Amino acid sequence: MIDETRSFSYFRGSKEPTFVTRTELEAAKLFDYYRIAWDYEPRTFVLEQDEHGNIIEAFTPDFYLPDLDLFIEVTEMKQSLVTVKNRKVRKLREKYPDIRIKLLYRKDFLRLAQKYGL
Hints:
Blueprint: H1 22-33, E1 39-40, E2 45-49, E3 55-59, E4 63-65, E5 70-75, H2 83-95, E6 101-105, H3 106-115
Parallel strand pairs: 5-6
Antiparallel strand pairs: 1-4, 2-3, 4-5
């Protein structure tokens, strides 16, 4: 977990977020900078169940942007190593076609953070 306590102006969740990665923290800072309302890990999607209804695979995207009705998954991994996340995003889109989700890479947030001095 990332140990950085700060107040977020545009956080819309009910419980203060505890980020797992530095990239998640940078994404939250970026959303606040741009005044984008956000929530952290508000929903888990079941991707696969066995014949008894037991959950085999699930996916909890990192962020939800309620004003855009968009889920965001961020990753610190190199783009070439994100096979698992890409597969989960693809499965989510197939199983929940009305859910909008975007996978963003650490480099995307680093560029924006450097550009705006975050």
